[in-house]
Amino acid sequence: MTTVVTGLAALAVVIWVGLLFFRYDFWRGRQRLGRPQQDLVGVPSVTALIPARNEEETIAQTIASIRGQNYPGDLRILLVDDQSEDKTVARAKAAGLFDLRVLRTPDLPDGWSGKLWALETGWAAIAKGEAQPDYIWLSDADIVHEPEVLTALVTKSQARQSALTSLMVRLDARGFWGGLLIPAFIYYFQLIYPFSAVNDPSNQIAGAAGGCVLLERDWLKRIGGFAPLKDALIDDCTLARIVQKNGGRLWLGHGTASQSLRDNRSLGSVWLMVRRTAYAQLSHNPVLLIGCLLGLVLTFVLPWALLAAGLVIQNWAWAGLGGFAASLMMLSYIPTLRLYNQSIWRAIMLPWVTCLYGAMTIHSALAYYFGAGSSWKGRAYGR
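The structure assignment produced for this chain is given below.
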């Protein structure tokens, strides 16, 4: 038994050495949009396409931030209302004044998610228009952008020759639960989709963050609009895979000048966000679920458990190997904590946070098998 546990401790060390040095530096968080570093090539036109359903609390701020962009080219705003039941449209029109065009989606067809049907409705209107924009800017209806964001996005897209450029916007990390869970959420996302790998045209890892995406219009036309991903719950990464599969380049980075207004101060808010897509991320595969949970335990929980057990029973091999793996884990988490202005000592909490996310993933699977499905702004989707 002692030999087996010692072997597991050594494996934990190998895993963390591999993650730290051979997982594309996922943990460093160096890919950031920043301010424009060069002049625009020409003055591309842009249409901001915003899907919205029951967003009365945030839509005015989102529209105002897009209207306030210091962008030298033609910028138009198209809001697609997914049959909202509140004051979303009225508040959007008040914020958009005469610069805003509003469409209402037809009834949701079978097989479509609400958000993607709204995007497809907007794309169909854009494709039929006389003035065709060079870029489509997808922004969620609960995100605000500082004035230089669009210029920086277009500049980055031109410099990198990217068909799809996306930002992991800054999420709300206020309060106990926000500060505890949100940096870890970003950290796990980077682990699954290392930004430097996504940005390498020779790498097959494809990822995107759907809250802020800039798409070349010709590429969106080439892939057939949003129909190829019409039922995807993880629509951003699915879109990135389709674009990459068709030969388009990707760029993904942190966007600290774009802020989500979604309130993450409660455990329930984050739990529902993760429950909605966690099992879909595992392709609704129970074998992958079991493998994921075992991997989380082995990678994030075991090092600390071995350190504690080794100190208690004075097994210095367990304590040493577990402590070394735990130290590498903490080191890898510090840059994300700093990105969110959190104390580096919160790195000690990562195993416990991992257990919470594991529970959310299990809940996601149970919801799938018991027919609870997923939801988006009051609209439920079955299995």
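Interim note for the steering committee: The chain has a mean pLDDT of 93. The first helix runs from residue 2 to 22.
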